[in-house]
Amino acid sequence: MSNLLQQKHTIRSVDFLNDTLFELTVDRLDIPFEAGDCMAIYSPDGKSRPYSIASGTTEDELRFLIRKLPYGEVTTQLANTKQGDVLKISPPFGWFRPGQEKQHAPSVFFATGTGIAPFISYLLSSPKQQPLAIYYGIAQQTDLNHLSLLKNTDQLYVAISQEDSAYHRGRITDLLENVPLDPMIHYYCCGREKMINEISEWLTNKNIPLSSIHREVFFHG
After folding, report:
1. Which of 30, 120, 172, 183, CA to CA, is 20 to 30 A from 215?
2. Are 214 and 101 in contact, with CB atoms under 8 Å apart?
3. Measured between alpha carbons, how far is 195 from 36 in angstroms, rounded to an integer?
4. Domain ranges of the chain
5. How do the residues of the chain divide into helix, strand and coil, expressed in percent and rounded to 5?
6. Which CATH fold would you assign to the domain 7-89?
7. pTM for this predicted structure
8. Count of Cβ atoms closer than 10 Å to residue 50 Cβ
9. pLDDT one-digit tens code per residue, 83-96
10. Per-residue burial over 149-175, b = 16 or more CB atoms within 10 Å of its CB, e = otherwise
11. Residue 126: how many CB atoms within 10 A of its CB?
12. In the predicted model, is pLDDT for residue 62 greater than 90?
C-alpha cells in the first residue's frame, strides 16, 4: 500500500489480556470506518498485516485485538511497542459487514479467537438490531474479552478448547444444534479457516443459501 495513504497514529495503550493476546489502542485521527473494516498496521521495520477494528464507529480511538505469535514477523514487534510510540496504519478497507445485510436482517455471529473483533465493533456501534446468537470459540478462559458486551445478546455460546471452565469444553462446532435456522437469517463467520469451512458446509446442508453466509478468514503473522 502506498506510503502516501498511510497515516501516523500515536499509541494510547498496549494492554495484555494474557501472555499472548493484547489490545492495541491508537488515536483515531477522525478517520471514518464501518464495523467490519480492517486496517493494515505496519511494524517498525515496515512489514504489515491487516487487523479488524475492534472499536465502535462513534469512538475517538481505534482498537485492535492482536495475538502475539512466536514467529510472527509483525505481531512480535507490535507487542513490544508502548504508549507514545507512533505506527503507520493504512486507511480502513473491507467488505465484511456484520449485521448490515438486507436492511439489518436477523443475524447469527460465529467467531474464533481474535475473529471476535469485527463483532465487537458492530456491538459497540449502536446497532439497530442485536444478533440472534453469538458463538465464540477460544483456547483458554483468559482469551475471553468484552464479556459484558457480548452478554447483551440473548444467546451467547462460549466454547473453550484447552481447559475446563464454566463454559463448554470443546469447539463451537460442537454447539451447532442450537443455531437458529432460517433462509432469511444472515450468518457471519470470522476467524480460523477450518471453523469457517465447517460451519459453512453445515449451514448449506441445512438449506441455508450461500448468499446468506458471510466469511472472513483471519491469517496471522
Report:
1. 30
2. yes
3. 19
4. 7-89, 107-217
5. 20, 30, 50
6. Elongation Factor Tu (Ef-tu); domain 3 (2.40.30)
7. 0.94
8. 15
9. 999 999 999 999 99
10. ebeebeebbbbbbeeeeebbeebbbeb
11. 9
12. yes
Per DSSP, helices labelled H in the chain are: 75-79, 117-124, 147-150, 193-205
Locate 29 and state its grid cell. Answer: 485521527
The confidence score (pLDDT) of residue 88 equals 97
Q: How far is CA 133 from CA 95, 172, 176, 188, in A?
A: 22, 12, 11, 11
Grid cell for residue 70 = 512466536
Interatomic CA distance for residues 39 and 62, integer angstroms: 10
Taking all residues of the chain, what is their mean pLDDT, rounded to a whole number? 93
8 Å CB contact between 186 and 212: yes
Interval 123-177: pLDDT, tens? 999 777 899 999 999 999 999 989 999 999 989 999 999 999 999 999 999 999 9
Closest listed residue to residue 184, CA positions, set 203, 206, 208, 205: 208
Give the right CATH number for 107-217 from 3.40.50.720, 3.40.50.12780, 3.40.50.970, 3.40.50.80. Answer: 3.40.50.80
Q: How far apart are CA 136 and CA 138, in angstroms?
A: 7
Taking CA 14 as the corner, what is the angle to CA 9 and CA 18, rounded to the nearest 5 degrees? 150
pLDDT of residue 45: 92
**25: three-class secondary structure by DSSP:** strand
